[in-house]
Amino acid sequence: MKPIHTFQTNSVTTGYDQTTILHEINVAIPSNKINVIIGANACGKSTLLKTMARLLKPQSGQIVLDGKSIDKIPSKQLARTLGILPQSPIVPEGISVSDLVGRGRFPHQSIFKSWQKEDYEAVARAMEIMNITELADRNIDELSGGQRQRVWIAMALAQETDILFLDEPTTFLDIAYQVEILDMLTDLNKKYGTTIVMVLHDINLSARYADHIFALEKGKLIAEGNPTDVITSELVQQVFGLHSTVIKDPISQSPLVIPIGRYHNKETNI
């Protein structure tokens, strides 16, 4: 099992250029759990993820890993603990699946160290976890969207980090692939104890798979906790501006948001 880490943001305010997106964010990421960030479009979900992964520098405040500000940790050292899969990674032209997954081993390399047995084993293990071993020699350009996403996640797994950030890993995928990806990430968490921190667009999938949810509204953290406590009709109205009812999912027992909308709202008589 992966070790327990403390990871938190202390009064983090950040944005792009002169535009502030997040305001005084204080979060502590539960270690060895599946953590999901939810919120409406443009509320700052991806900005928070990028800031925590040190892809975006805070305007004020700091990100702290195991008691040390991450801006004080050397990049390769940090990359051996934190991994990130961005929302739209750039595919190198003509690269094979195994070569792309192998790029996840970069933090473990140096000019004095060539590939070792453990590097090959890490790549093979990552491909096995994501069920892409049979695709090893295929060109990444030949794969479907769901297959590509599994390859990208395998690359992040080959990095062998304790904490993995993913920005909307199910975007543009059919529902079957969405569930498949989230099931695989859950397997990773349950089997190895990898801390997962991801942005998800679908509130019901978030409620089903998350151990801990962070809800953002207009750049501010307004609620956090287990899905049963966080996902309420009041929160859905506040965060998404959606009239809904929340019931218990008959399969997972997690909260299930049922949108009402104007057409089915008897109160409006429409």
UniProtKB/TrEMBL annotation:
The lineage of its organism: Bacteria, Bacillati, Bacillota, Bacilli, Bacillales. It comes from the Bacteria. This is Iron dicitrate ABC transporter ATP-binding protein. Pfam families: ABC_tran. It is a peripheral membrane protein. It is found in: Cell membrane. One of its GO terms (molecular function) is ATP hydrolysis activity. Its main location: membrane.
